[in-house]
Amino acid sequence: LTHNHLVKNNDGYKTSLEAIKVSLDHIPSVIVETLLHPDVVPTLEHLAGVLNQSGIIEWRLMPYIPTNQHSTKFIGVNMFSVVQKIQSIKERIPNLNIRVPCSPRHCLSEAPEILTGESYVALDNHCGAGVAWMAVSYDGSFKFCPHSNTSFGRVEETSITEAWDTMRPVVIDALMPSGVCGACKEFSLCRKGCHLVLVDNAKPILK
Predict the structure, then answer these.
(1) What is the pLDDT of residues 171-194, one digit of tens each?
(2) Could you tell me where the beta strands, DSSP code E, fall in 20-131?
(3) pLDDT in tens, 109-150
(4) Helical residues (DSSP H) of the chain, grouped into ranges
(5) Taking a C-beta distance cutoff of 8 angstroms, is the pair 69, 149 a contact?
(6) Can you tell me the distance from the alpha carbon of 108 to that of 91, in angstroms, rounded to the nearest whole number?
(7) Is pTM beyond 0.85 here?
(8) Residue 196 Cα to chain centre, angstroms
(9) What is the rounded CA–CA span in Å between residue 84 and residue 32?
(10) Which has the closest alpha carbon to 143: 174, 165, 125, 164?
(11) What is the DSSP secondary structure assignment for residue 80, as one 8-state letter?
């Protein structure tokens, strides 16, 4: 019911599961991605069982991030509860590989904190957006991240090299050690978590 409500399709959940099963019949490896929404978190353990029975061994839990300036209010989730769910699922279904891409800060706090204990193994390390790769949007805009509002030129007026050479220093500068994050032992892995907002606020060249 949660899935159907979010996608505004009464058959959405059923159709998704059928698509997964069909994909597994034709593709060696299928990765399922689930958007983390407050209404979805309580269902994660049930969904893990369904996916496992379907033959899925790779599952990604994607934190919600705004996709453009017209996005609705940010819908956050309690990442501590998500991590607890993941740990519980891993104990019950050890062959299901669960990861959290577009990872939040490893400290999981609303404001940066120095992490003194071990980090959560399910959290992916910092994203390579704008450092190792860039995206080309549907409208031809060069973006460091597909979800970003900031454009570093368009294909009809800027070469890939020019866009990359302009983009990369901006992203790297946003990821430099600073404040509490710079003093944390996890910084080399975490890099302040998802850097979408950091870069979008740093140098909005084109909107």
Answers:
(1) 999 888 888 888 888 888 888 888
(2) 31-36, 58-63, 97-99
(3) 778 888 877 666 667 767 788 988 899 988 999 999 888 888
(4) 2-7, 12-26, 44-54, 79-92, 160-174, 179-182, 187-190, 196-202
(5) yes
(6) 22
(7) no
(8) 10
(9) 20
(10) 164
(11) H
